[in-house]
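Posting this for the archive.
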Amino acid sequence: MLVPKEGDYIAIQSYKHDGSLHRTWRDTMVLKTSEYELIGCNDHTLVTESDGRRWLTREPAIIYFHKRYWFNIIAMIRESGVAYYCNLASPYVLDKEALKYIDYDLDVKVFANGEKRLLDVDEYEAHARQWHYSAEVDHILKANVKILVDWINNKRGPFSKEYVDIWYNRYLELSHRQ
């Protein structure tokens, strides 16, 4: 597939380990692509759940995907400040249809006040048993939780205010051109 250009819109699809579709985001504006990264913005984007439920995202969010790290980051821009939702997930792949990844249940939420929470540990453990996550996948995911927490603690990349400001302003520039 051709790599999407700045200002293009792509779909995002998350899957579960068994190959079932988990969730789809219809229109994400691409802000930057490189050999390993894709940065985009969702703003009142239609989301479809695997059970058919549909909803719109409530606020603009800068999204960060990487081809080497087993997580993706959603920086939600709210009145109260930036909050983060981080999915422990496979590195992404891009094809004609969408940006795709496997969601491995574990999530790290960072509140605007800086509080961090590891979420869905029970769901991860249940799916690990159900779908037989390998010891290697388990090790990779746990190592990537540590990398992610280090990024959060050191305000690296998407966790810095400047990063969010730069990419949100770029989104506003591109969206006003259309």
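The longest helix spans residues 135-153. The chain is about 25% helix and 40% strand.
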